[in-house]
Specification:
Helices cover about 0% and strands about 50% of the residues. It folds into 2 domains: about 80 residues, Beta Barrel (Elongation Factor Tu (Ef-tu), domain 3), CATH 2.40.30; about 55 residues, no CATH class. It is elongated, with a radius of gyration of 19 Å. By secondary structure, it is an all-beta fold.
Length: about 150
């Protein structure tokens, strides 16, 4: 399977990185990056009349059976470029931007709310969580209502 990658993301993607591909029907398949082209190519104009955009061709090998009939289909690819074990995570939307480029979260205990400064680590955009330090394990973190 081949996908086009935004050139700004290319430096973070390597051969052997694990991926999860979400297919048009919502099913997911795991796989591995087999090749990242060293050269960006121009992707033809989009159907909405937009101008051609550069993209880096990436080849993905999917586990299990091959996927058929995906020519030009839109898929989502989540690439695991780094992994940390035994970390505390909170929903990304729980982060509150603070002055100086720092973050905080609001913890809730009973009817008590407290803003707690945190330091962020890895972001997992696929799961919508971020690694944090500064919050006690088991603390309830406030998340805005959608």
């Amino acid at each position: 399977m081949s996908v086009s990658l935004d050139p700004t993301m290319a430096p973070t993607v390597r051969r052997g990185d694990k991926v999860i591909v979400t297919l048009p029907d919502g099913a997911t398949r795991s796989g591995t990056i087999a090749r990242v082209s060293p050269v960006a190519q121009t992707v033809p104009e989009s159907q909405d009349g937009g101008s051609p955009q550069p993209a880096v061709p990436v080849t993905i090998t999917l586990k299990d059976r091959p996927v058929t009939a995906l020519d030009q289909a839109l898929v989502q690819v989540d690439v695991t470029v780094e992994r940390h074990a035994d970390v505390l995570t909170v929903p990304i939307v729980a982060l509150l931007a603070q002055p100086g480029g720092t973050f905080a979260v609001v913890t809730v205990a009973g009817n008590q709310r407290r803003k707690v400064p945190v330091r962020t680590g890895l972001f997992d955009e696929g799961q919508g969580v971020v690694e944090v330090t500064g919050v006690d394990e088991g603390a309830q973190v406030e998340v805005p209502v959608e």
